[in-house]
C-alpha cells in the first residue's frame, strides 16, 4: 500500500489491499507544504523515512472492520514488527519516495480550458452587519442528497475566505437574468454592506443575507473544508431552500450569457 501526498493538498491511500509494501509517495512541492502533509499522517523520522500509525492506515484504507482486510493488515504489521520496523509507539516505518512523473499543464492553459466550461453563476453570502461578505462563484455543485450537501471552491487569498470560515454558514443564491447589478456589485464593491447594495437582500434567521428573487437560495452550515492547491473546498449541509421561476445565466469565456433551449442533433 502507498500513501500519496499530492501537491494539490490531497492525501490518499492507494492499493490498500497490497500488503507486500508500505511507502509514502509525494509530489514535488515546497518543503513547508510537504512537512504539513506528513504531519497529517504521522511524523518524519529522517530524510527518507516517516512513521505511520496503524490507525491512520486503517482510516485511509476505508476497509477498517472488514475481517479479511483486517487479518491481512495485522499480518503486515506483525511482519514489520519482526523486522524491527515498528517502534515503541506502535508506529510503522515507511520509505519516502518522490513522484518524478508529475507533468501538468501551465496555469495559462488551465485557465483557457476552464473558461470553455459553461457554468451556473451563484452569489455566495455569509455574515451580518460589518461582517457581511459575499463572492460570485461558478463552482457550486451538488455533492449528496442524503444528507443534502453542496460545495464550492474559494481562493485562499479571497476577501470572503476568512468571513466564510469565521461564520460557519453560507447561502448560495443561484442567479439568473435580471441579476446583472447584483453581479456587478459583488465584483466591484468592497466586502460589507456595499457589496449587498443591489438586489433587495434580506436576512435569514441566522443573520445571513438571502437574495429574495434568486432562482434558488440554499442555506447551509459548513460541515467540511479541504485545502486543494490554491483553493479551499467548502462543503455545506443544506438546512433550507427556496426556489423561484426565472431564466438562468451562465459564465462562459469570462462573460455572462443567457441560455435558451436547444435541440441537439
UniProtKB/TrEMBL annotation:
<dbReference type="GO" id="GO:0052874">
    <property type="term" value="F:FMN reductase (NADH) activity"/>
</dbReference>
<feature type="domain" description="Flavin reductase like">
    <location>
        <begin position="114"/>
        <end position="258"/>
    </location>
</feature>
<dbReference type="InterPro" id="IPR050268">
    <property type="entry name" value="NADH-dep_flavin_reductase"/>
</dbReference>
<keyword id="KW-0560">Oxidoreductase</keyword>
<dbReference type="Pfam" id="PF01613">
    <property type="entry name" value="Flavin_Reduct"/>
</dbReference>
<dbReference type="GO" id="GO:0042602">
    <property type="term" value="F:riboflavin reductase (NADPH) activity"/>
</dbReference>
<dbReference type="GO" id="GO:0010181">
    <property type="term" value="F:FMN binding"/>
</dbReference>
<dbReference type="InterPro" id="IPR002563">
    <property type="entry name" value="Flavin_Rdtase-like_dom"/>
</dbReference>
<dbReference type="InterPro" id="IPR012349">
    <property type="entry name" value="Split_barrel_FMN-bd"/>
</dbReference>
<protein>
    <submittedName>
        <fullName>FMN reductase (NADH) RutF</fullName>
        <ecNumber>1.5.1.42</ecNumber>
    </submittedName>
</protein>
